[in-house]
Amino acid sequence: MCGTNGENSTDNCVHCWRNGSSVRTIDLVVVGVEREPEPVSVVFRRICEDGERVPMKMESLTTPEWFDAEKFKKGQRYFYNNYFAMMVTKLCGLVLVLAVPSVLKVLIMTGRSSTPARAFRRYVDTISNMIDWYCGDLNKRDSDIYKVLSTVRGKHCAAAKKSVAGGSTFISQKDLALTQYGFVGLAITRKEFFGIKGSPEELEGFLHFWRTIGYFMGIEDRFNLCEGSLNHVTELCENIGEHVFKPLVQKPSSDFLQMSDALLTGVRPMIPMNDNDAFMEFVRRLLNLPAERLSRAYSRFSLGLLIFLHTTLLGLWWLAWLMRPVLNGLLRFSIHSNITLPLLAILTLGKEVLQREPTIGAETQRSHQRSNMAMAH
C-alpha cells in the first residue's frame, strides 16, 4: 500500500494518481464478471476526469449478461430489512447530489426542485420509482420495473436534451456516477453509524442491485460505482465523499443552500420532526466536517434525535431487534400516505404538491417505449 506521511488512508490513492507514484491494487472479484483488479485511484480518476467528457448512454438497453437475479433479490431484501436507515441515507445522498454544480444547473433549468412543493413532488416521485425497483422482478417480462426504468430514463434523456438545447452541457457519466453515490455511497461507507445490518451476501446483493439500476440509467460499466468487490466499492465511495462532496459542502454555493432548503422543507410532511439546519449539520458530520453549533434549541434537539435514532436505537442490537421493525413500519406508513393521499403536504405546502410533472414529448415517449420493449426482450 502507498503511504503519505507514513500513514495508510483513503487519501493515499488519490494522492498517488495526482503525483504519478505507484498505487496498491485491491484483489477483487467483480460482481458477475471475472476481470483483472484495478486500483481505486484509476477508477476515481476515470469517473472524475474522463467521465466528465462522456455523455450518458441514451440508446436502448437490454438486461446485461452479468445480471444475477438471486443477488438482485438479496439486495432488495437488504433494503427492506433496513428501510428506515436506508431512506435516511438516500435523503442525505440527495442533499449531497444537489451540491454538484453540473447536476444543480440541470435541476435549476428544469425547475423541478425550486420550491418546497415541487421538491416534495419530485422526492415523492423518486421514492415511488425506487420502491418499484426494490419490489420488481427483472425475470418477469411484464413486471412494472421495466416500465418504471424506461420512464425514468426517458425523463433523464429529456432533461439532457433540454440542457443541451438551452446552451448548457450534457448529462455526463460523472453526473450519473455522483448521483448513484447519492443512493448507495453513504449506505456503504457509513452503514455502522446508520445501524444498517445484514449478511455479507445481502450487502453484495445490494451492490449488484445498484450496479444493475445504474446500468439501466445509462451508466457505462467502466464508470459504475458498484462494479467491484465490497472493499473496492467502499474505498472508491470514501474517496468520492472525501475529495468530491466534502469540499462542495464545506464551501457551499448559494444555489445549493437554496435548493437543499427547498428539498428538506418539501420532505417535512413525511418526516414532520425534521429540522433543516439540523439535517444539514447531520450531513456535514457524515463528511467529517468540523461541527457547527446550531443556534436554535429545536435544531439541537432534532440533531440529537437523529444521532440517537441511528447510533443507539438502531446501533445497539438489543434495542435494534425491536426498534428497527417499528421505525421501518412508521416510515413506510408515512411514505405510503404521502404517495397516495398527501393531506399534510397539501395543508403545509399548498395544492401545488398535487401537480404532476409534465409528460415527456411524444417522440421521446415513443423512443423509450421502444427501449422498454427492448429491455423486456
Automatic annotation (TrEMBL):
PANTHER family on file: GH11867P
Q: Where is the signal peptide?
A: none
Q: What are the protein's GO molecular function terms?
A: oxidoreductase activity
Q: Origin organism of this chain? A: Parthenolecanium corni
- The residue ranges of the ER-bound oxygenase mpaB/mpaB'/Rubber oxygenase catalytic domain are 84-222
Q: Does the keyword Chaperone apply?
A: no
Q: Membrane spanning segments where?
A: 83-108, 303-323
Q: InterPro entries recorded for this chain?
A: MPAB/Lcp_cat_dom
Q: What Pfam families does the entry give?
A: MPAB_Lcp_cat
* The entry's keywords: Membrane, Transmembrane, Transmembrane helix
Question: Could you tell me what this protein is called?
Answer: ER-bound oxygenase mpaB/mpaB'/Rubber oxygenase catalytic domain-containing protein
